[in-house]
Amino acid sequence: MARQSTSSQRRGWSSVGKLRRKLRNMGDKVEKNIRPALEIGIQNITMDMRGLTPVNEGVAATEIDFSISRDGLTAKAGLIDKASIRAAFYFAFLDGGTKGSPENNVPPMQALHIRDRAFDANSEGMKRDIRAGIKNALAEAARE
Prior knowledge:
Layout: H1 7-10, H2 16-26, H3 28-52, H4 60-63, E1 65-68, E2 75-78, H5 82-87, H6 91-96, H7 114-143
Antiparallel strand pairs: 1-2
């Protein structure tokens, strides 16, 4: 039976699971080195998402938030809980666009790609900072 590839392997990253396991087992070193870099990066993404959301769209921009997992290795940005998704359900239409309806004389709405643009604008700096944090955490663990 052929072994299935993980999503990280399909993206071209190898041994991500092993690295995550090692980082999780280090505990305080992750908190001290990686989490701050991840938090700064995800805050920048969240601010960009709020800035790219049109002003006349009600509460959509105020509902955009971020969360970081307890282990400090995973973060989410956008509409992250059910209450914010309900309050700003139309954010999906802003971000992804609509087809419109020629029968009802409703024009299509062009996609704004808010999430993609915010992540693309901050990805390089965030990757650099997280790599430096991982390097520092592994160096500290090696010294012990």
